[in-house]
Amino acid sequence: MKLNALGLVLMLLASVSFAASHTYTIQAPTQDEDGSPRTVETLDFYDFFCAGEATPTVTVPVSGPTQNVTVFRPNAGATDCYATVTAATGETSQPSNTVTGNFIGFPPSAPVLQ
């Protein structure tokens, strides 16, 4: 059974932290592609892919029906990201919708001379 990618929704939440980062809210799918019910307890982890990368930018465990995930990037700026979810049985969903995140970076604090 494949997972329903339509149930996997990314939404912009906020841009926070001290590195180039962006926080997304992700919603777990509630059914499989064939329409049968799917519970969050049967899901294992999300993979986030950004900027066309072939390997995940970050992998996070599924911790509830809706959760916030902060993705860190080496550079600030607008970057397209999407996610997949993998079930405990190993099946992976189709990619979610793509969301452009405005990754905000902050320079380091000034050094202190003594």
Summary?
This protein has strands at residues 9-14, 20-27, 43-50, 58-61, 66-73, 77-87, 99-103. With 114 residues, the protein is mainly beta.
Topology:
Blueprint: E1 9-14, E2 20-27, E3 43-50, E4 58-61, E5 66-73, E6 77-87, E7 99-103
Antiparallel strand pairs: 1-2, 2-5, 3-4, 3-6, 6-7
Strand order of the largest sheet: 4-3-6-7
Give the distance, in angstroms, between the N- and C-terminal Cα atoms. Answer: 64 Å
* Proportion of residues in extended strands: 35-45%
User: Can you tell me the overall shape?
Assistant: elongated
The SSE order reads: EEEEEEE
Overview of this protein structure:
There is one protein chain. The protein has 114 residues and is mainly beta. Helices cover 0% and strands 44% of the residues. The protein has no helices and seven strands. The chain has a four-stranded antiparallel sheet with strand order 4-3-6-7, with no helix packed on it. A hairpin with a 5-residue loop joins strand 1 and strand 2. About 12% of the residues have low confidence.
